[in-house]
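seq as requested:
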Amino acid sequence: MSEKELSKTRESERFKYFPDLKLAVRNRNLAPLTIVKRQEPKDAQDFFTLIKGKEIKTSILVHKRFAITQLDSHLRMILPKKCISSNFYKKWVEDMANICVLFSDITKTKEIIFWLSSTRVCKNFHIDKTDFRLLVTYSGAGTEWISTPMLHLENMENLSKDTIYRLKTWNIALFNSCKDGIVHRSPQVKENSWSLLMRLDSSNFKKMKKA
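struct tokens:
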């Protein structure tokens, strides 16, 4: 095997695809990036059209046992009534709550930090300074990432488009930064492009930021 082929093999080991997050967790040997492929529900984009263009930026601590109740109560305070009265609203909250519970299992914490935003601020390639981070883009362009370790990158801002991947909507991305984390950034899109991202961090994230 040539050095080039060997390098590609090593890079492919840095990310894995799973059909289910529970299966990924049971696998235990989590890659730096685990992606769970999911089909976007057929009513999803009609629902998000109801809030498209609205600025959303909110975060709360979510307890594993009360995830769905906490999320529902919080979102009812910040989302328009036409959104909350939609039949899809309950499905969406349940989806986020289920992922919160699984993320609590992964991080082995009872509380996690839930963050929902239409503002994408990480324009430059970087690695998160946290143990685990989970991302789901529910609408709009997803997070961009590359498989090459940062150590081997000479110029991250002039990378070939062929080397940059983009996460699809509704796919779950679990970043494991303890193992030479995956380099990623917010999607490079037009300024008026709207997207909605859920980000989950372990409750240890605040402590790590202060350290």
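The beta strands are 15-18, 33-36, 57-63, 111-117, 132-139, 144-146, 165-166, 172-176, 183-185, 196-202.
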